[in-house]
Amino acid sequence: MAREPIQFYNRHTKQLETEKIYKEGWLRFTYENPVGRFFLWAFVKRKFFSWHYGWKMNWRSSARYVLPFVIDYGLEEQQGEFARSVFDFRTFNEFFMRALKREARPIAPGDDTAVFPADGRHLVFPDVDKAGGFYVKGSKFALEDLLGEGHLPEARRELTRKFAGGAMVISRLCPVDYHRFHFAAAGKAGKARLIKGALYSVHPIALRRRIEYLVQNKRMITLVETDAFGTMASIEVGATNVGSIIQTYPEDFSVKKGEEKGLFKFGGSCVITLFEKGRIKFDDDLIAQSEACVETFAKMGDRLGVRAGELRELRTADG
């Protein structure tokens, strides 16, 4: 059977592109082969498997993989964005967690504008309750499970009620991407809450088989009280071979739009951003691609959308 390519729309080039998948053969074997799925259940999804791989990526000898990785995945043109030379990283994990020069990711201006929290391939859903088509038509998960409230009686699902009918962004990071995540809007950030879980892959090859992996994986949830968008939830989702989710922001302090929130150690992963109902209007191109189940590649700091109330006011003023 022919392997279906993973395609995405590149917002910068305005073209549909095919993803070069890291360890594609291993990934497809694990999620598309019955024998591979046994190993997934027995070993791959478990914490020790990812911990061991991440531990190896901290060995000094792993630095030898950096330059071949840069060449194989076409990162040569991006080297000018790196805060350090590729020859200065002592381990592969150091390279993976690399910082960028501040000017490499300009932040879309405007107090009423939200930005993407990470580099990656993104899907947007204006109404999370009606959302279907997470990587394949009809696939969806329950909001209460994402927020870690699925085990609670309905009356106690406070976050689920807060974000019911709200908007959602799924930002998928590939191993080739910049793996630090940032705040989509300014506000006061609370404490990150850990929800323990498995470590399945969050690549479309895996999610096309079972979208619930997103709500079964380890994740961290932070609530941000913003002036422009009300309460916003930033959810970092772990995945296979992600050694750690590290938060670097000052808890219970005001943060700026585009300010660094944290980073992932080695592996693919994703960030999910939730907005309250009626608070944000996503840009039209993002909605169009997402309705077709096509991810849009965009960078951290690129414009995501505007405050919905502000948009209505402008339309009223224009007649």
- How far is the first residue's CA from the last residue's CA? 56 Å
Order of helices and strands: EEHHHHHEEHHEEEEHHEEEEEEEHEEH
Low-confidence stretches: 311-319
Radius of gyration: 19 Å
Compute the number of helices.
11
Mean pLDDT: 88
Report the sheet-strand fraction: 15-25%
Look at the helices and sheets and give the structural class. Answer: alpha+beta
Number of strands: 17
Amount of helix: 10-25%
**Overall body shape:** globular
The main pleated sheet reads as: 11 strands, mixed
EC number: 4.1.1.65
Protein name: phosphatidylserine decarboxylase
Organism: Ereboglobus luteus
GO molecular function: phosphatidylserine decarboxylase activity
Task: Please characterize this protein's 3D structure.
It comes from Ereboglobus luteus. This is phosphatidylserine decarboxylase. The chain is an alpha+beta fold and 319 residues long. The protein has a domain at 105-317. 24% of the residues lie in helices and 25% in strands. The protein contains eleven helices and 17 strands. The strands form three sheets. Strands 1, 2, 4, 5, 7, 8, 9, 10, 12, 14 and 16 form an eleven-stranded mixed beta sheet that branches. A three-stranded antiparallel beta sheet has the order 3-17-15. A hairpin with a 4-residue loop joins strand 1 (7-10) and strand 2. Helix 1 packs across helix 2. The protein is globular. The model is unreliable at 311-319 (pLDDT under 50).
